[in-house]
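Standup, Tuesday
Yesterday: got the pipeline producing structure tokens again.
Today: sanity-check two examples.
Blockers: none.

Example 1:
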Amino acid sequence: MPFSLQPAGSPWAWAGAYAQQPSLANGTLAFVSGGDVRLARSPYSSSFPVTSGLGNELHPSLSPSASLLAYSATYSGERDLYLLPLSATSPPAGAAPPLRLTYGLHVSAVLSWSSPTSLLLTARSSSPARPGTTCYELSLPAAPEAHAEVEPLPLARCVEATPESPASGCRYFVRHTQGSQTYGYVGGTAPFLSLSCAASPLAPSLTRDYPGTSRSPHLYPFAGRAADVVLYLSDQREPGDPKPGYTNVWALLLSADNTEDSRVRITSTLCNELSISDLSVDQTSGDIVVRRGPDLHLISREEVLRVIGDPSTSDPPVSLLLRPSSPSDFSQLLPREIPAALSHVTSLDALSSSSPSSPLTSVLSLFFNATHAVSVKTDPSSPTAEVVLTLSHLRSGAESVLYPPSPGSTASGGLGSPVPGGAVTNGLQVAWSDTDGRVVVLDVAAGTLRRVETWAREFGELRFDGRYLLATFESRANGFSQIGIADATADPIAFNVATSPVGNSEAPVLLRGPSSSVSTVAFLSDRDVVSEVSSPWGSRAPNPHFKRRSRLFFIDVQPRDSKDYVRELGDEEPPPEDEEPGEEVPIDFGPPPTPPSSYSAFAASAYAAEQVPALDFSSLLSQTTDLTHLSFLTSNESPPGTSTLSLLDLSSYEITPVVEVLTCDVSSDRSQLICLLPPAAPPAADEILVLENTAAGMSLAGAKLASLDFTLPVNPKLEFMQMFGDGWRMLRDYFYDPEMHGVDWPAMFEKYLPYLSRVSVREELDDLFEHMSAELSALHVFVYGGEYRSPFTDARELRGHSIGSLCVDSSWNEEAGGYEINNMFETNPHFPTVDDQFRTNPLSPSFLKRSGQVGAEAGDVIVAIDNVDARSMPDLGFGLKGKTGSSVKVELLRGSSGERDSVVTKVISFAACDDIKYAAWEWRTRQQAQVLAAEAGLEGGIGYVHMRSMSGASAEDQFVRGYFEDVDKIGFVVDVRDNRGGSIDSWLLDVFSKKAWMWWQSRNANITNGGLGHDQRGAFMGSVVVLTNEHTASDGEGFSRGMKTLGLAKLVGTRTWGGGIWLSSDNRLVDGGLGASAPEVGTYNDEWGWGLGIENMGVEPDVVVDNDVKEEFGGRDRQLEKAIEVLRDMVLEKGEIQPNRPPGVKKVVDNIQQYHAQREAGFDSRFGVGTHLSSYNALHDSNMRHFFENSTVQAHLYRSGQIDKAGRVIDLDRNASKLHIIEKEFQNAERAEESRQKEEGEMRRRVQLKRNQALQKARREEKLIRMKEDRKIRQEIVLATREAQGLLVPSPSMGGKKKGTKKKAIAAA
């Protein structure tokens, strides 16, 4: 029996190479496996590595003759392009060291060879189009020390491209890509094939009619066919296919006029198989290689032509499975020891100082008691890496599973995925919360698991304090954090809400007296809010801002006269030390709150500790074991991320700082505090401070240092197995839909598990995760992070190899012997600094003028850097290696004068240069928007702001900088193209939802001259257009959907990315990376349902317009042009946005008088309510006869029409019509008189006007006569003077001057 180091079926059993990224040329196959590039020659039975560097090597591409190999690698810490000559021997090997071709270009991928001496690649773009990735063509240098010419293809946002076809002269390319892993994707960044021909100014699409994915185009050598044939990968389905999303090889046959003739599917991958990921075509033989999972398959030219020639055939092409033997030393799989570091510490616990064991554990566990520890860990016997609770002996190491009997999801009775760091213990019980929102308590002795009754929607920190389980959770009512306290000995266990939802309450600590009963609940609360903004009036419409500040609050549990109560101020006598603690008195929470009040009497009894000032508390930790002090943390402004550990004397309320820390925690038995020290703090950054939890022990003098001077053993193969199971389990437990979108998730584990044995590096595990997570058909699923091979372990060594930047677009000028500057990337001059960082080009005039130097301009040539001639540099970045942040001398050949000059400037990083390039595009687009607005007739200009992302303070700052500058304009363009997402959409929607309803005016200020304007400070009253494109992602899409749904704007552009399920990326694996980020928060509303119509599809704009890639490369922006056009139409439709002011100023006193008149008209002096008196007329009252016999009164009654000449009373009702006629006659007479007066006034005005006109005419004529007379006198004086001096005086018959007259006159004189 042959000797074997490993038993059969062990995780070490080698099942073959995990092949990726194949390249086939001239009978030679290159692929990536085990982190190296390997080569195999026909018949591809064995492969050999041709690279073995420590860098990460990807994207191999063989030249047509297979004599050269191009690939990307991170040998210098950044991904650049390398060229390796190959020998003709078998096995193949490198014929010389690899030649580095790029310096700081940040290569994304090597695509293919466009000729024997040039190749295509994708890298960071420096074109006038939006920053991003684009395609380049690199011409190989004639000699190693020569300069490689790198020119961008004139195709904006190109991510894949073929060489130009010899038959048609056209190039086939792809312009989109997206990093989220999903099947069946139809969102905005779904890639499609397009065509670029030199004779056409535009680049039309070819496969955009299919909404799914079409990518990886390759020209196919189809002999005898005049038109092109292009092979590509697509997830397009045919009738009868069971499920969308599985990728196959397709053939696109074109006609002679470069239009589509037909499409033929070459392969047939079904839903129970793996999708095809990679494709390569041998341009010599016509054979193709595809990758499915870790395997490569060879399809001969004959089989390809057979399927193309008979598209109706049901027989798929016969493929040859390539599994070349891959001998290796398996260095990536050797067990290794990793030095422990603070970054590995995720939980802390300690035993009392009397314990003989180390005060720290090296696993994720908690000390259960003095002899045992309880751990939440992955069960090594579970294939799906299920979580179990174990109990281990500290001395012997013996370990047993406490719970559950059968590991699995919470639905199957298992633990599911506990929240990281959420397990706590009190020595009798263990409690934790999980991703399903449960809080459970395990009684260790009884082995029973009980769920805590709660109504919280999300739990924060859990704490055990004796028998009580303390928790913080979000209130259902308003999202404020509240405190819950549960008696873990009760049955059932239920949380009592201990605080009111009037603010955030957190960090509860139970304070006890000598009898061990709880006397007081201490906690922090920010309910006493103090705004730093006193008024919304001012620039940028300041909103109330509440600085983080909390106060210490108490709730008395026991009466004040109880011996268990905390000593009050003035009590000098400590409790007797020999007093025996009595039986613990349970906390009485009182009756639950009754409607309409939502606050219990217990919560309402909280009061603030007035003697303790409001501080920037970060946490309360614990009462000291001697019952005299309370420990707490406060956040420091500097250095950021640090806190100060302090003690509060519970009798005098005096605060004593102890030490500056990163964080602190309390041991399970409350006897010690364990603190992580900041890097700058003594004694060392890899040691942990352990303090006794007493007033005397809380000092550095008595502290112990727990050293991390040990290593963590890692078996890579076992680690890959655990990470694969963890990644699968956490997707199951974190994904927002428990039904997993209808996917049989256990079946997916079984489907991909067999390929795990072939994984040897993290990149291959990533590939496996990408395939598995794509089955969920959800976006926001990303695979990144973790431990990858790096040539550097020291940051200083990495800095020495990093490439700096002068942030100019340059090209080699052979005549001048240097790098000619083509573009300086001009940014907004009004914002030289952004977020406290300079955002200016280090060679620009605005940057160098501060030091009295003359900046560079386009056309200048860089001929030397730090006295190193540019001719000796294969690339401009070569001269800037290791100089990021340093000052350099740059020698320039001035293009305007041809003189040689030098300047000293600072080298910046490529990340800073990328920021400058992006800012230059923003500034150029803003200026272009203003020009287009002026051409469209939008007087006064429009507002424009571009939002790079919706993430954090930088995004808020960017919006404020662009919005308030143009808040008074009639139109606004919010550009969220390429927005990376974030979480500030609700704030932006609030800003645009504000509408003014009241305007102001004073004697000298109103809305027309820049006065106070309206009451809604910062409200935009004009029309709004939101610009979107395929890279508008996540929260950028939420903002766009909200603006459209709320009727606040119209959307212009293209369909967005399609991320409608949000995430938090907290399902990390053991190496710190993500197996696959889980979309955790679903979104919905009544109109769109789940995903808001965004998920996997994107937001469809109101007006669809796309930029042509050729035009965009040249700087044209059709989307912006259309946005201005739509905005103009909206402005015209909306009309004037300012209100019409009332004609004239209505005095306030007039309003008051009108108000009083209305009140008097309705005045009623009747007595009682509802009393109706009979009508009364004094003229008919006989008792009043003597009063009306007075002649003066009768005369008045006659004049007022109440009696006639005979003294008879006139009946007004009966004579109403007569009175009406009389009244009308009076009115007509008044109108006639008014009309007569107007006519007379108009007549007088006209007469006066004619008089004025006649007077003005006479004055003009008189003035003209005087001018003529003055002119005649001046002419006579001039003639007399000339005659006196003997000058020739022209006669009137000469008709003017002639040439030479003046000279003759002077000669005669």
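Example 2:
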Amino acid sequence: MSRRAANCSIKMEKLEASVVIEHIESDKSGNQTDSQDEGLSQKSECRRSTQEKLVKINVPLPNLNHQQIDTGATHLLILADTSGSMSGNPITQVKSALKDILDGALDQPSMVTNLILFNNEACTVNLDRTNYLSQVEKIKSGGGTNFSAAFEHVGNEMRKVRKKTDKKIEKTVIVFLTDGVDARLYGTKTVEQKWFQSLMASVENSAGRSSITIHAVGFSKEHHYEFLKKLTEQGTGEGMFRYCEPGDGPTVLRDKLQELFDFVLSNATSSMNVMVSIPGTNQILEGGTAKNSAIYSGEITKDEGSGKSELGVDLWMLISDPDPTNLSVAVEMTIMNKQGKPEKTFVPCEVTTTQRQIVRAEEKVVWNLKVLQRNSDVLLADIGKAICEKNVKENLSNRVDKLQDRLSQVPLFRKEFNKELREILKGHLDDIKKKIDQMRNVLAEFARGNTQSVQMLARAHDMRYQAKFSKSRRQRILDKRVAKNMPHLQSAQAQLDQIQLDREEIQRMSRSSTDFFVCTLSLNNIKDILLDSDKDDAIGFGLAVRRQEHVLDAPTLVELHSISGTLVSRCAMLDALEYKINCEGQLRAHGGFDFSQPLGVTTIGQSREPINAWLPLYCTKQHWERVKVLLKPSLGYFCTLDPLGYDFQQMDVMFMILGSMVGELSDTKSNDQQLKMIFCFLRTCQACVQEFSLENKLTEAVRLFLTSPEDRFKHKLPNLYTMIGYVLSLPANTITQILDGEENLRKFWLAMVTECLRRAASRNLREINSNISHGLIDLILHGKKEKDLLEESPALTEYLKLMLTESNNKDLPLTKVFDPREGLTIDDSMTKKYDEKLDQALEVWAQAELDIIRNKNQASKVNAARKAVEKWQHEGRAAVVVDPTAETESGVDDPCSLTQSKLQHLAMMLQIFSNQAKPNIQSFLGCMAFIKMWLGQSLDIDEMDKNDGLPPEKWIVMAKEAVKRVYSCANDQLKRFLNTDKDKEEDTLVVQGSVNDEVSLVSNSEETQTAGCNQSKDKGQGQNVNEDNDDVDDDNDGESGDESDDMNDDMDNYYLASKPRKIVKDVKKHISLPVILTLIDPDLDVMQLTRLLMCQIILCHSNSKARAAVSSKQYIDFALKVDYKEELRKLDSHLIKMREEAIKDVMESVQNMRANYCMLHTPSMWAFIGYLMCTYKERGQGFSDLVSTIVDDNCQETYPLLSDKVRVMFLGKYNDHAVLAKGNVWIPDAKLSKKFATALGEEVWNDIEISVRSCVQLHVYRESDIPNRHGHCNSNPYIPNELRKKLGMPLL
């Protein structure tokens, strides 16, 4: 016993303590399995994995008088800031918080509660249980903030309460609800210190010897965190600080304040301090650190039966001794000293029992969750402390990652877990997940705050789009990136500072270079930017983009509205962005992630084009030294509107934009400025490949694109333009090895074009079912019958226009359903035909099948029965009549022949898909020309460095000639398609894309006039997806076009040349898919390839369907040599097989209906068994129809022996013979049980159900014993309470 306790005048009864040490079972090496140590500090890391124990201490409190355990009353003072700075959302949140706090506090008999409102002055609100809600609603904000008045009023109120109340005030708890904003606090810490001193002087004079705790709750984004945190440290013990975010609703706010109120409430009720000590190597874990002594607040509980009180406390310890005997426990008690005055002291306890408990295997998950809960709390406290001290280290982020990894390994589904336990575990898991999200968010915000010390990020950070992603997973990803990127970007600032420029070399730059590399906004040229501007300034170019949230997962899906030819410096772009944000807000400046808003415009370019994004250019070697440091934060801002949001996948954005720039080339749109920009950006991309070691990655991607169809799909390559950028950015010697020769180029472009169309089709085909898709294929293979076509139709062009413009939307107008049952008729009289004479044959047949009849003398009888059964089955099949006049053309018409009807429907579908293509089909011409020129001429990119960053003039000339040459070939091919020989038997298909210049369609006697054609510069060259398409690897992954386009605009561009009868003037020209395919390979059978391609597109339009086809080796790789006609015939054979199977299914369905009717009406059980056995092997669809007929509420018919028949249906046996489903029982669900109880009667059904349940054996549920969605499994089967009563089982 301590000296202080020994000198007390009152004799204390000896206190005894019992200790329970709980731990998990160690492995053979002595180590505990699954030790969870993510949240603890580094000091205890080396030993905790082998010694971690949960210690539970219980101290009985016998015969203690009230004074010894009475904690006295608690005085709760709530100070609510009602100044003008709290107006709006903060004051609304304060009111909500007050209602929750007062609702719990006013019910506590051991608590005195006061509400103080303060602004310029402070006043106490008179409230009680009856009027507190109305009093809170009256609170309004206004005036200034005067903490000095609030502090003084606190002391006055404490003195008043102590004079009025007869309760002994042992604890004083002060809670501030404020933003902490007082103008007099800024600029000096002297005022702040004086206020704290006056507060504590006033409080201590009023409180006497009672303890004082001050808590603070901060509201609004501008709350004074440092002041409020220091305020919580002014009491005799440290209080809590909580921050309520502006977006927190009442529920979230209540959850955040619950911990604070629980803390206040626990101090206001029965609790006592317990001091635990253990010397030597054994240590106590508190707050993530290991120590030899710690004080805990224990809870006093009272046994209602015996009336005895008990004090309990749980703590974590590192114990290496098998039986620690040096553990000491002391309880803080109030006793009388020699002067007769009460005094608090720690009274030692004798540890009488020490018990060990090893956690059983089934309780191991619960143990791990306890450890995770503790570690998450410790880590959260460590992060908070590190941020307050502004000393956040990278290991904190690593500890959060480790905690997340441990959490993901916690199993929820085991056979020993019942439903209730799983719900408890899930609640704990959700709680820890929220804490992890909170930690990531805090670390990310701290990292963003550090950008103010990094010059290159500071301004961009100020203009960061502070919007929450709708999916918490994406928000976690961004927060994780921010915390990860900050250390690297801080070192990047040092790299900028260390760059040494060769000023003489910069001064020697050519006039043409300085005239080209000029910022349009600031008029500074590259010399000015390198020599006189900030170190984080650089030359780049402007773009206009739209972003959706999924760019965080797939950056290349950012939609390019336009690529500007205007050069802009980084600082000038930031100036323009800052000005636009200040004037019109962020959404008007850059669009955010909201597609519902108009395109955000930061500034405009030389041609009045919109600009809202920026990327840097290589320009020169010295300029590149600066650009390569700025590139990652620039890409981070480009994709996520946060300079710290960079991810390595965003480097693909550079290649995607390069491919998009090349795709804009055409014979009428290839000017010098455009080509110079392309070559400059190509130089930038090649420098990225070298600087960031991307060559191997790009090489592998191009190789797989050529050889593997699955590596062309959207989940691997979200934007096809990225592959164009890959090809151009690889070193010349590398890419020429991959695309060496015409054959490899042919494979590459066939793969590119066919994959582009497959993706385009997904938007139109998203909602179609298999019957419609097979119907469309049937149209391509066989068309429509001649009788269905318009007689004496006008020119096919006009006919197609009329047909397509009648559609009310842009979806596929051709919705023919392939009905393989077309032309089938059923004789309904056969489905309800019952012959009593047949029952005898079925009886004999069933007994023979079950080997009951063995007498050879009855062989003739058995044979006669079998013949009767076969005849009955044949009659059922004969009830289905196939009408030959209604059959489809499958099997009659040659699917490889070409007719007018087939070409019409092919043209319709191809036109719709082509209009949705991203990239645009015609853009491949520019890409084909530029890549062929680049690879064929073996140009050396280093020549641009010798020319001060500009491409040699001969490169510009070669690029122009290459593009014109390709377009000239395309136009010649188009003329050949349009000028079809009248005597030629084969029809020719020309499908048009988007609209630009005009072309005339004439007969052979007239001359075809052609004009140049521009690529439409609309909705951007990048990929666009629907707003509800969150993930890249989505089955419905079509890229949507511009929804505002008119249906007529889409459909006016169909043209079909098939022996044209007259001139159609003023039609508009666009290079068609057949033209592109002919340019890729003149020897291709373009017509049959197009037909086969459209069939595969319809079958494999989604990523999942395409991947499934690749896995089953049914996907056709058009980059390889393919026998198109043979594949078309295979498709036709598939349709024929589907029809044959459909006829078979119909016949089986009719036979099932006949059998069901006979089974229900036969008065013989053996006849019923016969019908059942010859019709059903398993409980399939026909059997389900039989069940539905029995339980049908509207059925008024009475069936003989129904209960016995139902018993057989569920048991699968009759007289111990397996007659259905190999004799396996069928367990009905609750809903079906109720229906059978209604149909058969409760008593009859209960008897059947008991028979069924009694036959339940293992593996009725999943063999793995994983519970189903209702929580039932082999070890916990579903048995209704009615049956449990009869079986004597406990009720649910």
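Quick observation on example 2: The mean pLDDT is 76. The first helix runs from residue 3 to 6.
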